[in-house]
Amino acid sequence: MNRSKIALIVALVVLAVGYVIWNGVTQPKIAPLTPEPIPTASSPAPDLLVYLIKRWPTIFEASLPIRPIYTVAARDLPKYMAWNLPTAVQFIGNGITLVRIEDDTSVYTVVLRLNADRFTVAEIFKGVGSFSAAAWQTLVTKYGAGTYPITTYTTSLIREGRVVAFDQLTLVPENVFDTNYWNGN
After folding, report:
1. What is the structure's pLDDT at 22?
2. Cβ atoms of 46 and 80 closer than 8 Å
3. Alpha carbon 155 to chain centroid distance?
4. What domain count does the chain have?
């Protein structure tokens, strides 16, 4: 072999080694994927809420025996009609939630129970977005826990006679599942 071919091979080897070293130093190291923690029924309400929202299509949509009703023309409907995200969520016991869902014609309140890694439907109230104080207390007694600190998240409410809307479910002190709240009592 002549000197020019040897020099070319050496140069290519040096470039290849240099590229491998440079690439190993400058490229970010990718951490191994760690599974997202699954909350338990005793997890704090914010953790349960995040899990519920992130897993909405797989945990909730798949197990809900009712479908939303839309008033748009059938040709405009997606093949899979999905519920919008909840407009209100209230934690009434360890892993027990009241969830208000709506489409453009109906409102439902669904009682969900966290079992292992999925929420299951305990009861559905069609056409009901809030309850009388007595009916709400009955739900809390039936499904919740008397000593559990009830927490409510909502996307909208009324304060001082004005509608307040939030971009996402927001922790509020009001009980938006109580009809008396909406009636101003």
Report:
1. 63
2. no
3. 13
4. 1
